[in-house]
Amino acid sequence: MRTPLIAGNWKMNTDTAGARQLASAIASRADEAAGTELLVCPPNVYLSLVRDAIGDAAVGLGAQNVYPEANGAFTGETSTDMLCDLGVQYVILGHSERRHILGESDQDVNKKTLAALKAGLRPIVCVGELLEEREAGKTSEVIRRQFEGSLANVSEEQILSTVIAYEPVWAIGTGKVATTEQAEEVHADLRNQLTSRYNAETAEKIRILYGGSVKPDNAEQLLSQPNVDGALIGGASLKADDFLAIAAAGAAVAKS
C-alpha cells in the first residue's frame, strides 16, 4: 500500500507572518491527516522559518527548486547542500511554470533530479501536457518524452526515492480539473512506463501524485483512483482548512 503524499506548493506566495501562521496551523492539526504524509513547500526565503514553525509535527519540508551544481558563481541560485542544511527533505522539480515560463528543458530537470538524489533529497518530478497537446491527442507522447528525459539515468534504487507528479498544464490554477478517468489514464500510463523501465514490483512502490486545481470537493474522487497516490496542491495549500480537508480525504481513501 502506497502512503498518500499530500504536498502543498506555496509557489511565490505568503510573507513572514503568513508563512509562520500557515505552517503553524497545519502542524497543529496534522493528526487530522493520519494515514497520509503531509508536506509543505514554501518559498526558499521562508524555509527555515517554516521548519521552526512545524517543529516536531508530522509535516515534511520541501523546496520548490534547486540548482544542480554544489556551489560556485551562480548568483541567485540555491544548492542541494543548502537545502539539506536547512532540513529540507523533498524538492519539486520540472513544474510546468518552470518549464513553460522559465524555459527549463527535460535535460535541465534531469540534471537537478540526479543532483537532488545524490544529495539525499527526494525529488518530486512533474510532467504534464499543454491544452493544445491534449486536444491534438499528444498527451501520451508528451508525458513519455518528459518521463524519459527528466528521469534519464535514474537507477532502480534512486527511483524508489523519487515521486512523480502529473500536472496537466491546462488545469493548473485555472479551475479546470482533469476528470477522474483522464487522471487515472495518465497515472496508469506512467506506472506502465515505470514497469517497462524497471520492473512491476518497483513500479508498484512509486507514488504518482495528481496536481491541477485540487480542492476539498474533488479530492476524494481523484484520490480514490487506483494509480493516484496523493496530490500536489497549489492554491488550496495556502488555506490550512482546505489543505487539511484534502489530506483528510486522502486519509479516508487510504483507510477504505
From TrEMBL:
Record-level GO cellular component terms: cytosol
What GO molecular function annotations does the UniProt record carry, in alphabetical order? triose-phosphate isomerase activity
Q: Which reaction does it catalyse?
A: D-glyceraldehyde 3-phosphate = dihydroxyacetone phosphate
Family matches, as Pfam families: TIM
Q: Where in the cell is it found?
A: Cytoplasm
Q: What does the record list as coiled-coil region(s)?
A: none
Q: Where is the active site?
A: 95 (electrophile), 167 (proton acceptor)
Q: In which pathway does it act?
A: Carbohydrate degradation; glycolysis; D-glyceraldehyde 3-phosphate from glycerone phosphate: step 1/1; Carbohydrate biosynthesis; gluconeogenesis
Q: What is its EC number?
A: 5.3.1.1
Summarizing the function annotation, the protein's role is: Involved in the gluconeogenesis. Catalyzes stereospecifically the conversion of dihydroxyacetone phosphate (DHAP) to D-glyceraldehyde-3-phosphate (G3P).
Q: Which family does it belong to?
A: Belongs to the triosephosphate isomerase family.
Instruction: Tell me the protein's name.
Output: Triosephosphate isomerase
Tell me the organism: Bythopirellula goksoeyrii
